[in-house]
Design a protein that fits this description.
Largest sheet: 7 strands, antiparallel
Strand order of the largest sheet: 11-17-16-15-14-13-12
Structural class: alpha+beta
Strand content: 15-25%
Distance between the termini: 5 Å
Shape: globular
Length: 413
């Protein structure tokens, strides 16, 4: 692929156990390659079913020049379409989200059903057939209420990811949740650095006091609590051993799933820290309306990571989801959404500021660290550095990126 010949050369320099060459992080060519080629060939997390609760609700997922409408139809099904009218290509939806009984182009009023069918196109020739001009679909998978899209005409397999994630999050019943808070944060760093920062907790002890007050750092790049060496006293290891039987009783225990084979998902249930029952500053529930099977607050959370752009935490009282998309070589959109039960009343059952406090603080801290990382990599002094033992999840992400980049180059030739 002549346009991206330098990408192939940079990938050839990638070393196992080391960070990527500089221009794969900060180069204009790498940004164009990522957004125009590589990321269009993989599954991307876009939103939850709670973002599009009712028929006619739509939500935009945007990546570089591509804008995708995710919409719930009258039949309750969630579908995705390119945000481009089949007449002369104008954008149908301009706002980030909305609700409408149908999708109408503001330019010439071509009108589409929520299933993408063209319903009305005035002034066309007698032989014009509306059936020939539906909205262009985008592949979509609803995984237990998490919505993933893929812009490839031949999406990669997703069945193992879907089965594993659904088996563990179905009980939270995201269809009966609502979005209580959504934050869109622009981080001044390359998207791969934002992802790498998320994939380790090597930095946590000195940077995330709010997070570590409720969420232990074992299991987040430092190994699971039960991996602690024999003879080492570890309160978290003892806690998880004590809780395992209770998790089994509740039917919520599963073994760790850690990016098996060539798949791109990790799932782990872990105890919260310091007796917390939710990811809040005081460790108490953020919402008094508990989710799923929980009748009492539970001192664990379920964490899910997917390559290449999301992570999620499920507590007994709320869910927090994260997605990111690159905006430029040095700017990334981090979207964080907090979900609570749909019948939870703001100001009565939950306080939005309290609900979001831990991760707002953590996101701000991570944004600073990622920007610092980017600013150092862009210098002439940067050389790829070795990963620590606690950064294996970072290397998993790097390998996912490099492997899929090579595949994308090969397929585009």
């Amino acid at each position: 692929m002549a346009r991206f010949e330098n990408i192939a050369k940079l990938l050839a320099k990638d070393r196992p156990g080391y960070t990527l060459p500089r221009d794969l992080y900060v180069g204009e060519e790498a940004y164009a390659f990522d957004t125009q080629v590589m990321l269009k060939r993989v599954w991307l997390y876009a939103c939850t079913v709670a973002h599009i609760k009712k028929p006619g609700d739509w939500f935009l997922f945007e990546l570089a020049n591509n804008s995708i409408i995710i919409v719930r139809g009258r039949d309750g099904q969630v579908r995705a379409f390119y945000n481009s009218c089949r007449h002369r290509g104008a954008k149908l939806c301009e706002a980030q989200k909305g609700r409408a009984p149908r999708l109408m182009c503001p330019y010439h009023q071509w009108t589409y059903g929520l299933d993408g069918r063209l319903l009305a196109a005035r002034g066309m020739a007698d032989d014009f057939d509306k059936a020939d001009f539906p909205l262009t679909p985008v592949a979509l998978e609803n995984i237990g209420g998490l919505i993933f899209i893929c812009m490839s005409d031949d999406p990669p397999p997703i069945d193992r990811v879907k089965a594993d994630i659904e088996a563990q999050i179905a009980m939270y019943d995201l269809e009966k949740c609502k979005v209580a808070v959504q934050d869109d944060l622009i981080e001044h760093a390359n998207w791969k650095l934002v992802m790498e920062n998320n994939r380790e907790c090597y930095h946590c002890d000195n940077n995330h006091p709010e997070l570590l007050a409720c969420l232990g750092n074992s299991g987040f790049g430092k190994g699971l609590p039960e991996d602690v060496a024999p003879g080492v006293i570890d309160d978290t290891a003892e806690a998880i051993a004590a809780q395992r039987e209770e998790w089994k009783r509740l039917g919520i225990y599963h073994d760790l799933i850690e990016f098996p084979g060539n798949w791109w998902h990790r799932i782990a249930r872990l105890p919260l820290a310091n007796g917390a029952v939710s990811q809040t500053l005081d460790g108490k529930v953020a919402s008094t309306k508990l989710l799923g099977p929980f009748t009492e607050p539970d001192t664990s959370s379920l964490s899910i990571w997917t390559q290449p752009n999301s992570w999620h935490h499920f507590c007994c009282d709320h869910v927090v989801t994260f997605s990111l998309t690159p905006l430029s070589p040095d700017r990334t959109l981090l979207r964080t959404s907090w979900l609570v039960r749909e019948d939870a009343e703001e100001g009565v059952d939950y306080d939005p500021a309290n609900l979001a406090a831990v991760w707002r603080a953590t996101n701000g801290q991570d944004g600073y660290l990622s920007a610092l990382n980017h600013a150092g990599i862009v210098t002439d002094g940067y050389r790829p550095g070795p990963y620590s033992l606690e950064e294996k999840l970072v290397e998993y992400f790097k390998n996912f990126y490099a492997d899929n980049a090579r595949k994308a180059l090969a397929e585009a030739e």
